[in-house]
Amino acid sequence: MHIAALHQPSQVQLNQQGNLKHFLTIEGLSKESLTKILDTAQSFLDENNNLINRPLLEGLTVMNLFFENSTRTRTTFEAAAKRLSANVLNIDIARSSTSKGETLRDTLWNLEAMAADIFVVRHSSSGAAHFIAKDVCPNVAIINAGDGRHAHPTQAMLDMLTIRRETKKPFEQLSVAIIGDIKHSRVARSNVAALQTLGCKDIRVIAPNTLLPVGFNEYGEHVRLFNQMNGGVTDCDVIIALRIQNERIDSPALASQSEFYKMYGLNKERLALAKPDCIVMHPGPMNRGVEIDSSVADGDQSVILKQVTNGIAVRMAVLALAMQGQLQEQGLIEAISL
Ligand code: CP
């Protein structure tokens, strides 16, 4: 599927009552839907930020299907599913029969026949999760764990939860800067969409032209472009640094990593231009000394590891809500009570 088609609001992820039954993309979801995910995630955290287990998915089976590498997303989905008392199977794609020529469709139908209720899917092709939800396994709740350059909706929601909890300000009052490789980043795309939907009025994208998508204005309202760090980060409440996605770059986009650090690396001097209580975020994996200096990554304003913990709460919320939406569609609404 062409990436432009994926920008259209998708109804595939909603059931007849307008609730999530898959979670594929932020686009097309209302402010109320995103707020419901945040509030549900919040309900899995106590006042000391400890995670609260709830056996909402007891007897149900979550399968993690990661066709691309992952540290945070795969592990936090597994942790989230276990905290909801689901059975969790991590499918070892490298050892699966895909290497013998089995199609994605056949692999998924076989896994569905093993009584899968939820597939968590990461794939290098933009649109893979959408394709599975629409055309292959519509009765399994499909959660997009990152598809190509297109979307990483649970990362966006854990970022929004982190912003809400750490700034304690309404999204309407925040200035948020996203720095780095916007062109190849599914995180940037999903974060911009989530910020816009939640009401943020000042979204700044800071990047060299070589790391911006062609037709940058596709990002829509309240998004401003900066080619220089200094103007871009001034008076910000939130800075999100992104890594260079070398695995998705097919021609040189940068003179060198050291040149990028010189122009766009987030160091203490540049952070000092933002508001004094500005928080620093990064989805990981980080390349220290390229997009972010260690003094900032490990400094007092960094909430990077809190993002990871919040990721478990958000993934618990998304798993429970999507499963609830699937069961609602199948007339079994009483099965999960949130
Ligand atoms: N942020 C993120 O998606 O990290 P992983 O690739 O480690 O899952």
Automatic annotation (TrEMBL):
Function noted in UniProt: Catalyzes the condensation of carbamoyl phosphate and aspartate to form carbamoyl aspartate and inorganic phosphate, the committed step in the de novo pyrimidine nucleotide biosynthesis pathway.
EC number of the protein: 2.1.3.2
Aspartate/ornithine carbamoyltransferase Asp/Orn-binding domain segment(s): 173-321
GO molecular function: amino acid binding; aspartate carbamoyltransferase activity
PROSITE patterns assigned to the protein according to its UniProt record, in alphabetical order: CARBAMOYLTRANSFERASE
Lineage, top ranks: Bacteria, Pseudomonadati, Pseudomonadota, Gammaproteobacteria, Moraxellales
Keywords assigned: Pyrimidine biosynthesis, Transferase
Record-listed carbamoyl phosphate binding positions: R72, T73, R122, H152, Q155, G284, P285
Name of this protein: Aspartate carbamoyltransferase
Keyword hit for Transferase: yes
GO BP term, example: amino acid metabolic process
Family: Belongs to the aspartate/ornithine carbamoyltransferase superfamily. ATCase family.
PANTHER family: ASPARTATE CARBAMOYLTRANSFERASE, ORNITHINE CARBAMOYLTRANSFERASE, MITOCHONDRIAL
Subunit structure and binding partners: Heterododecamer (2C3:3R2) of six catalytic PyrB chains organized as two trimers (C3), and six regulatory PyrI chains organized as three dimers (R2).
Segment forming the signal sequence: none
Pathway: Pyrimidine metabolism; UMP biosynthesis via de novo pathway; (S)-dihydroorotate from bicarbonate: step 2/3
Residues where L-aspartate binds: K100, R186, R243
Protein species of origin: Acinetobacter halotolerans
Matching HAMAP family: Asp_carb_tr (MF_00001)
One Gene Ontology CC term in the entry: cytosol
Catalytic reaction annotation: carbamoyl phosphate + L-aspartate = N-carbamoyl-L-aspartate + phosphate + H(+)
Domain Aspartate/ornithine carbamoyltransferase carbamoyl-P binding: 21-164
